[in-house]
Amino acid sequence: MRRSHVTTVSLLVALALGACTNAKDVLEPSAITPPATSTQTLPATSGNTAAAVPAPGGPASTVAGAPATTTTPVTSAQSAAALARTRLQIAPIVGASVEAATPLTAELQTRARQRGITLAGSADQTATHVLKGYFSTMSEGTDTTVIYVWDVYDPAGNRLHRINGQQKAPSVSGGASGAGDSWKGVSPATMQAIADQTIDQFAAWLGGKAG
After folding, report:
1. What is the pLDDT of residues 45-83, one digit of tens each?
2. How far is CA 186 from CA 145, 169, 179, 192, in A?
3. For residues 11 and 3, is the Cβ–Cβ distance under 8 A?
4. What is the rounded CA–CA span in Å between residue 127 and residue 10?
5. For residue 63, is it within any domain?
6. Residues of the domain holding 154
7. What is the pLDDT of residue 108?
8. Most distant CA pair in the chain: distance in Å?
9. CATH number of the domain that 125 lies in?
10. Is residue 34 part of a domain?
11. Full-prediction pTM beyond 0.90?
12. What is the number of domains present in the chain?
């Protein structure tokens, strides 16, 4: 009788402990899991309090600690490839004096090589693009502003793109005293700056097409 009584008490204690454990599981937020979204669901235990618990207002599939989805960054490989395929022919400059056009042309060639663009000669039939420049100046007192327009053509003569802008020339000795002498107030550095901007914009346009 005593052994039977002890056994009965033990069963009652075990049932009571089991009831307590079940109540704790129901009240513990970590035990409340959303509908399974994968083939494997981790059990809720005291060591897994953050498993599969969606944030308030968030999607049910969000899991704490999961890596965020990222977008693969676009590299410049396509842009570099487009520049490498380019053979640029520079047509004679229109509107600028010989003194102003000389440093401009030289810097166009230098900047193009720095950008990985191959230059084609005037008689080269393999040119992929032709760059034609039109220049004028605007003088106000001793200040001179160079206005430029570049048209980019394909070998068939179709205009593909236009680059334009203006560059203020610092005053130099022997500067503009009239419309006919306006180019005398333009330094080589001003024309070199225009050349750099032109090639940079041309390269950016090519890169944008490649992307």
Report:
1. 444 444 433 344 444 433 344 444 333 333 478 888 888
2. 8, 5, 13, 11
3. no
4. 96
5. no
6. 88-210
7. 97
8. 129
9. 3.30.160.150
10. no
11. no
12. 1
Domain membership flag for residue 173? yes
Q: Sheet holding 159-169: strands in order across?
A: 118-120, 87-90, 129-140, 143-153, 159-169
DSSP symbols for the chain: -HHHHHHHHHHHHHHHHHHHHHHHHHH-GGG--PSP-SS--PPP-TT-TTTT-PPTTS-TT--TTPPPP-PPPPPSHHHHHHHHH-EEEEPPPBSS-HHHHHHHHHHHHHHHHHTTPEEE-TT-TT-SEEEEEEEEEEEETTEEEEEEEEEEE-TTS-EEEEEEEEEEEPP-TT--SSGGGGGGG--HHHHHHHHHHHHHHHHHHHHHHH-
The pair of three-digit structure tokens given for residue 25, joined into one six-digit string: 């599981």
Rg (CA), the chain: 38
Which single residue is written with the structure tokens 């402990």? 17
Is 20 inside any structural domain?
A: no
Separation between Cα atoms, residue 167 and residue 165, nearest integer Å: 7
Place of tokens 């999607």: 59
Per-residue tokens: 144: 């001179």
